[in-house]
Design brief:
The chain is of the alpha/beta class. It has two domains: 115 residues, Rossmann fold (3-Layer(aba) Sandwich); 195 residues, 3-Layer(aba) Sandwich (Rossmann fold). The chain contains eleven helices and eleven strands. The strands form two sheets. A six-stranded parallel beta sheet has the order 7-8-6-9-10-11, sandwiched between helices. It has a five-stranded parallel beta sheet with strand order 2-1-3-4-5, sandwiched between helices. Helix 1 packs parallel to helix 6, helix 3 packs parallel to helix 4 and helix 7 crosses helix 8. The chain starts with 20 loop residues before the first strand and ends with a helix. The N terminus is likely disordered. InterPro entries: DgcN-like, DgcN-like_C, DgcN-like_N, P-loop_NTPase. This is Putative NAD-dependent epimerase/dehydratase family protein.
Length: 350
């Protein structure tokens, strides 16, 4: 087996980046820059033994601060590069840290656009230490989408912007549906979701012509009465990322949508000249696009990221959205998604 090949199953975990993890924060400028690490710490806390923060890091997960040797001694098998930056690049300092982690005896997994395997020094460190590298944004080969009807139920999360909680919402829906004894599977489309789920497709690394086909491949026909819960990406209203959002809508062929939104966000992420769209307009645009391959698509609810609001303001924001749109509105993290799942079950009963 090449040291760049997938890992075999270890400790009952079928992914190619076996836990426990050290979460690498590097010099993350803020919490948003560390969103990959934060997602893992939230959804898979039992897999995370600590965090590595460099001297200028402004983010924390509340985990133990460990260096590479300490993390390995604490049982970490893999260091996850838990940061996301513009362009997904690694600077020389970060490369040195990847090598240090490998020399300490850990595997290294990254969701950055710049590949670990593109750095000869990192590859050499993996080889000499008998360790493995995994680039989560290495997309599999997938077919071109054809829009053909396929069996099964699918839900897609969509957003008014990037990083408004689509992954958290999708995972919360899976958790609630499992609690009710329903069959439901989270389908990851981004690096954080892939690390959490142990599988998926990095849809923003797929050539544009193959995006819809990639989602058809990720969520094939199913006849067990269960749901595929597909993690959304980007926003139809974000000039940088609308293309991937549209491909997801067509390939997912969704029976239901959940709209994700952060109420107090002043503008599109990274684009100060573009305000967030009105919720009703955003919802209608997503429905119209989804109807190309799923004419009967419905709205199951709205998921609000109210993390920056006081509890009273959060509750008020949800009430206002419900009154305006006529569907349940909840914060998946602080309120759960029970009423959204209630509507989903009622809409597809029998």
């Amino acid at each position: 087996m090449s040291r760049l090949d997938p890992l075999p199953e270890q400790a009952g975990h079928a992914s190619r980046w076996p836990p426990p993890f050290l979460l690498y924060l590097g010099n993350a400028a803020d919490d948003l820059a560390a969103k990959t690490a934060r997602g893992l710490a939230h959804w898979r806390p039992g897999w995370c033994v600590g965090q590595y923060r460099d001297v200028d890091c402004r983010a924390t997960l509340g985990l133990a601060d460990l260096d590479f040797a300490q993390a390995r001694a604490a049982g970490a098998n893999t260091m996850i590069v838990g940061v996301a930056n513009a362009g997904g690049r690694m600077d020389a300092h970060m490369v040195d840290h990847m090598i240090a982690a490998l020399d300490a005896g850990m595997n290294v997994a990254s969701g950055l656009h710049e590949r670990l395997s593109a750095h000869p020094r990192i590859v050499a460190a993996a080889e000499r230490n008998g360790r493995f590298l995994f680039d989560a944004r290495e997309a599999p080969k997938t077919p071109v989408g054809n829009g053909g009807r396929r069996a099964g139920r699918r839900l897609l999360t969509v957003g008014t912007d990037c990083s408004v909680g689509k992954m958290y919402t999708t995972l919360a829906l899976e958790q609630e549906m499992h609690r009710r004894g329903l069959r439901a599977d989270f389908r990851a489309t981004g690096q954080t979701g892939i690390f959490i789920a142990g599988s998926g497709i990095p849809i923003d690394a797929v050539v544009a012509d193959f995006i819809s086909g990639g989602i058809e491949w990720l969520s094939p026909a199913r006849d067990d009465g269960g749901w595929d819960l597909i993690e959304g990406q980007g926003s139809l209203f974000h000039p940088s990322y609308a293309g991937v959002s549209l491909g997801l809508l067509h390939g997912a062929q969704p029976d239901a949508l959940v709209l994700c939104h952060e109420p107090d966000r002043p503008h599109m992420r990274g684009l100060r000249d573009y305000p967030l769209p009105a919720l009703a307009a955003c919802l209608e645009a997503n429905l119209q696009a989804a109807r190309l391959t799923s004419p009967e698509v419905i709205v199951a609810g709205v998921a609000l990221n109210t993390s920056r609001l006081a509890p009273e303001a959060a509750a008020r924001a949800c009430r206002e959205v419900e009154e305006a749109l006529g569907v349940p509105a909840e914060d998946p993290v602080t309120m759960g998604v029970s009423r959204i799942v209630d509507r989903l079950q009622a809409s597809f009963a029998g």
